[in-house]
Amino acid sequence: MKKLFLLLSLLPLAIPALAADEASRLHDLFKREWEVRLKEDPLFATSVGRHEYDDRLPSVTLADLQRENSETKAFLDELKGIDRAKLPAMDQVNYDIFKRQLENGIANFELGDYQMPFNADSGFHSGFSRLPEEVPLATVKDYQNYISRLRAWPRYVREQIELMRAGIGRGFTVPRETLNGYDKTISAHVVDDPAKSVFWVPFDKFPSTVPEGERERLRQEGRSAVVDGAVAGYREFLDFFQKEYLPHARVTLAASDLPNGRAFYQQQIRQYTTLDLSPEEIHQIGLSEVDRISKEMDAVMRQAGFQGDRAAFLKFLRTDPQFYPKTPRELLERASFIAKKIDGKLPSEFGKLPRLPYTVKPVPDDIAPKYTSGRYVEAPQGSTQAGIFWVNTYQLESRPFYNLTALALHESVPGHHLQISLSRELSDLPDFRRFSYISAFGEGWGLYSEWLGLEMGMYDDDPYSNFGRLGYEMWRACRLVVDTGVHAKGWTRQQAIDYMAARTSLPLHEVETEVDRYISWPGQALSYKLGEIKIKELRRKAEKELGTGFDVRAFHDVVLGSGSVPLNVLENNVNRWLATQQKERAAR
After folding, report:
1. What's residue 8's pLDDT?
2. Residue 13: which residues within 8 A CB-CB, separation 6 or more?
3. Is there a contact between 175 and 251 (Cβ–Cβ < 8 Å)?
4. How far apart are CA 441 and CA 274, in angstroms?
5. CA distance linking residue 278 with residue 575, whole number of Å
6. For residue 32, what are the CA distances in angstroms to 26, 92, 142, 211, 447?
7. Residues 376-395: tens digit of each pLDDT
8. Strand-pair partners of 239
9. Over the stretch 25-60, which tens digit does the pLDDT of each residue have?
């Protein structure tokens, strides 16, 4: 009897001990998988501030990818051996997000997505062109690492080409119809003079920390690395693209027309939205949102005093010179002024702001023709760089001022820069979460930030900018219709273009580049609207439950306080916060 009593008396101590043991096993798994992730992808390691592999590029041979997939499966099996029920609440969230990441990686590999390493928007080659801005270049060793990576580029390109050849062999390619003019993103780096290459810039001017006596040697080695490494690799890729890839790219558009295409598209939906919705369900949500936003656009059009129908108003917006910059500098200056004005509004909306600043720069020339109107570019972790709000200055007649406010809110603050920078400051999170980007959360937050501009007074003096905001929201609603229309309902490219052109205020050039993006990047465009719908839904719930006690600053801090999370985790976070608020109110 005494032994039984003693055993029972120890149970309360034993349970926390078991929980601690399970949590310890979990975090050990996180650390080991993270180290493997960094070693397998040296470019990613550099971006998160780890520099042991700064002299290398990844290896993407099929054998290496198969080995990495086996490693991922082993990590998943190990994770399943940990008793989730014994973990603290926060570690249960970590467990679920980690499990989702591993499962997505395995599913993507088994569906063969590695055979399409680029799309109409971006790719492995356009990402590499930013190398001079994303690596440390303060010491002789840094320069030697940089040179080593340039020299490794042809090998990396050849490995990617072999994967794309396998994709061609089974009909798993980017659609031919989206690739007109795409070779410019490659040919821009095939130069006859190394001094004309973006990769030469670090050798033009050395930092004071590189000794004078080393500079000429580094220039000579750099010249060879640019010519025989970077330029040679891009030349090889250009030759393959023009002679093999383009002629054999598939003539179909839909993801569902790919090998195992319906499963591929459903996996893309799951990965980018974190939701288990069917294409038909998403299509219907899109149609409903398009109808709602359309009514709001008509109201703002009348507010602007325009006499005529929507089609006439859109033509006016797309053709009147008052809405368009005359020079790239004018566009950048306008964007910078708007961004700085937003900065002054942030303290009224957020309790916590990031330490890292951001700047405004043009989209690089080599990718600008096929690129979107703007984007946020993260600073490498631990670097001396700021975040960047990219603004596309190509083809100025398609870059209207009336879209700039919504664009700045989305890409800089309180959108991507604020959200991503705060996430990186969450030192209590495992690294795999601090440096993860979940599209439904991040892009949903970006679109919510455009709407938040109303509350911040950013559209008060300009109905055209407010119409631009609605045009951007309509753009994201149309994505739900167009993405599912193309990939699940058999829409043509022209059908998608016509649908968007008739309903959004986007210039026609941007409509075309955006449609090509959705065709070649299935599912990603769905994340914006579905994420924003969830954030707005949670805000309405908080406002209703808390009434006059609702604090928007506290709400925003809760939404952003756990980093980038799946939408169900976000909902749980907000619900826990509401329960705490209600409990505190009842105790007063």
Report:
1. 44
2. none
3. yes
4. 9
5. 26
6. 10, 18, 27, 38, 35
7. 999 999 999 999 999 999 99
8. none
9. 999 999 999 999 999 999 999 999 999 999 999 999
Nearest in space to 342 (alpha carbons), one of 420, 421, 407, 423: 407
13 pLDDT more than 50: no
- List Cα–Cα distances, 358 to 48, 50, 300, 378, 562, in angstroms: 17, 22, 32, 9, 22
pLDDT in tens, 523-543: 999 999 999 999 999 999 999
Q: What is the edge-to-edge ordering of all strands in the sheet holding 387-391? A: 358-362, 387-391, 374-377
* Global confidence as pTM: 0.92
Running DSSP on this structure, what letter comes out for residue 391? E
Asked whether the predicted pLDDT for residue 242 surpasses 80, the reply is yes
Q: Which residues contact 498 (CB under 8 A, 6 or more apart)?
A: none
Output Rg (C-alpha) for the chain, integer angstroms.
Answer: 25
pLDDT value, residue 320: 96
Provide the token pair at 452.
């938040």
CA distance 451 to 471: 12
Query: Which residue, among 364, 302, 289, 356, has the nearest Cα to 126 in the 3D structure?
Result: 364
Residues 6, 45: Cα–Cα separation, whole Å = 51
Distance of alpha carbon 498 from alpha carbon 482, whole angstroms:
10
How far lies 329's CA from each of 158, 317, 357, in Å? 39, 21, 21
Nearest to 469 by CA among 273, 299, 284, 354: 299
Give the three-class secondary structure for 351. coil
Query: What backbone phi and psi angles, to 5 degrees, belong to 374?
Result: -175, 165
pLDDT of residue 158: 98
Asked if residues 69 and 63 have their Cβ atoms less than 8 Å apart, the reply is no
**What tokens were used for 393?**
């200055």
What percentage of the chain exceeds 70 in pLDDT? Answer: 97
**For the chain, how far is it from start to end, CA to CA, in angstroms?**
47
* Euclidean distance between CA atoms 450 and 54, whole angstroms: 37
Task: Tell me the two tokens of residue 384.
Answer: 């001396």
Between CA 574 and CA 381 the distance in angstroms is: 29
Task: Give the Cα separation of 164 and 60 in Å (integer).
Answer: 11
Residue-level pLDDT at 7? 46
- Average pLDDT of the chain to the nearest whole number: 95
Alpha carbon distance 151, 148 (integer Å):
5
In whole angstroms, give the CA distance from residue 109 to residue 97.
Answer: 19
